[in-house]
Amino acid sequence: MQLNRVHVLAVTLAVAGLTVLTGCTGETVGNAVDGAVNGATGGDVSLGGQLPEGWPEEIPLIDGNIGFGAANPADGDRGWVVTVASSAADPLADATAKLEAAGFTADTGATANVGETGVAALTNKTWSVVVAGTPEGVLYTVSPAA
After folding, report:
1. Domains in the chain and their CATH numbers?
2. For 125-141, what is each residue's pLDDT tens digit?
């Protein structure tokens, strides 16, 4: 299924906003959300600083603290979402540079910036990665390449 770039941007920003809200509400709510998401999706979800099961080794992350990670093994395809809090001057630029150094190619038609928030899409032969960034960190959304 091919997603429209606007839809990818909207979904990515929505997930980023939800992740920030979840991180601000405390451990009890985080555990409740973790359990609810696992129960609803059957996926592997972590709100405690770990990469989700099966995260592709060829996808480098920026330095920082993992705040949320989820895997979805739906229909035989795999997909992942991970947030990383970072103190870098420009976390999105760092994430993009690391992915390009690992052999990913940026899709310049699938980038956007709104204020201090930006989104970049990169691919290699195996994976498609959409990275949404703010001054506080980034959200990686990974799916199989089309």
Report:
1. 5-144 (3.40.1000)
2. 999 999 999 999 999 99
